[in-house]
Amino acid sequence: MRKTWFFPLVFLVLAAALSVGTARAAAVDVEVDGEVLPGGETVDGVTYVPLRGLLERLGDWELSWDGENETAEASSELMTLTFPLGEPWLLIDGLAVDSPPAYLREGRTYVPLRSVARLCGAHVRWQGRQSPVEVTSGYAECREEDLFWLSRIISAESQGESYLGQLAVGAVVLNRVESGDYPDTIYDVVFEYNYAYQFEPVANGAIHWEPTEKSVLAAKACLNGARVLKDSLYFFAPALSEGAWITANRTYAATIGCHRFYV
Prior knowledge:
Elements: H1 10-22, E1 25-27, E2 30-32, E3 35-36, E4 41-43, E5 46-50, H2 51-56, E6 62-66, E7 71-75, E8 80-84, E9 89-92, E10 95-98, E11 103-105, E12 108-112, H3 113-119, E13 123-125, E14 133-136, H4 144-158, H5 163-178, H6 186-190, H7 200-204, H8 213-224, E15 234-236, H9 244-249, E16 252-256, E17 259-262
Parallel strand pairs: 2-14
Antiparallel strand pairs: 1-4, 2-3, 4-5, 5-12, 6-7, 7-8, 8-9, 9-10, 11-12, 13-14, 15-17, 16-17
Helix pairs in contact: 4-5, 4-8, 5-8
């Protein structure tokens, strides 16, 4: 399957990547937790930074380079990120997510700052051309109540799942908040009662359990703007439910861990 994500001719991929890397590039100051991150630049309004430099400041990562397919890969305990040069997406544990394309410059892989930092649970703040772009790890600029309930519903629904699976559950909640068919706050979405509670942890009380550290990080990532399965509004676990109404009325999107997601 991986081969279908790349052009059959390597030089075409490299040409596209180099084109992205040289178009209207301008230097920009970037700071991660107050420490300067060298090499920042903007391309068509998108801030890019060297992949290795960013991830060295955001956790414990192992990086590798696939010269045959022109891709960079970064792995941590949370997830594996794959960056195919020149493509308008990145891969999270194999799932494609829309993102500005990565490119290669002087032997370094440049990646879109917001896309990667948000997935790591970091907040990105742009304060104008005369100020550095600020990246703050483990922080979400949001209401305390939103983080409180989003982290708990993610943990109660998917604490045994991968980080990607937890991001997907968080996305469903936020997609409902943004949809005109559901309440417009996280609390009201989580506790919505329509013939029955919409989320089983609300019915059985698990919503009040202390969330895991990973679930809190996933909630911060979602609230900072990281979004997977951006159109999904439903999910269920086949081992626990038939999901008869969902499968009959909604469009399948993806399976992540024990959950199936639907638009």
